[in-house]
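Teaching assistant's notes for section 4

Start the section by putting this record on the projector. Ask students to predict, before seeing the second block, whether MYND-type domain-containing protein will look compact or extended. Collect guesses on the board.
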Amino acid sequence: MDEAAHTTCSHCGKQASNKCLGCNNHVYCGKECQKKDWPTHKMLCKDIRLDRAVFRIANLLQKMFLVFGRHSCETVYGSVEQNGNTIILNETYKARTRAGFFDSFPHCQMTEELEAIALCACSCDVSLWALHPFIANMLSVLGLKVEELNIRLSHCPRQVVINLTDGTSENNSLGRDHSVFLWTSRKRNRSWIIDLTGVQYGIDIYHRAEDYSKKFVKSIVHKKEFGRYKRYAEEVAKLCIYEGLYCKICLHLSEQIMQAVQAWTEMSAIPLSTLTHLDQDEFVTHRDALLTYIDTTLRNFMDKADYSAELAAVSAWENANPGLHELLTHQVRAKILGPG
Ligand SMILES: [Zn+2]
Ligand SMILES: [Zn+2]
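Reveal the predicted structure now:
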């Protein structure tokens, strides 16, 4: 989002530095000019504010999803390679050091960007439900409608290949479905695509919906109301299979995030709704403090949690019923998300 600072009065064009308190973006040489400009600026002022709020929430969500990912990454990567526009993640066998099912991430040296790519690779479905309570909370304040979109990409600047220990490999190529959010403001007649896991494809998180469609969407597989993917995860979590245990623990982490957010808001006395219109520097400071608090909360939770008995139970069940887990998740998928 372009938020270049203005240096000249939006009405008369003279050098000026008094910021409009609404958008914190346009500047005026004095009260007179601001008053005269208001009829023209009013709508723009609202749009700037809304765009900034959406951009910041998206930015916070993306970073929050990475914190969540660090504590819920089920694949242990031994090494990462970069070959042009392709990132290769190599899974490794490594005994888990935590009884809590997920080892903390990363497992090998990697840059911050590669870390983000590794955490987002093939986990775009999860991004639609892992932060559900937080998104519901933030967006109700802005009066935005949220929808969950499953799409096929027409173009992706980057590719990720995951080499698994069983010799097979997975990748995020164009044929795969990708999941994103569609946020709409009916009042302001605009919508955005929030692509929380787009970094794996080299795609930014925040886009005006029409730009994203033009650049990246080949087709929409399905569009669901907000919360549908969470229902899917809750149903899978009831199954005594590996995927079920994965969803169950992720849902626990999701609750922990919400509790951490509440605790942090009370402790810092900063209501979340103010985060969207603070000065940029203040926003970054508070955002990072909140993220650190969530990270610590999740780490403490996972260090204490012990899912080893449940893990043993699902492993025993899957060994006794080979191949059946795929059928079960497929059934839940068909029931809740429909065909496709
Ligand atoms: Zn002026
Ligand atoms: Zn303004």
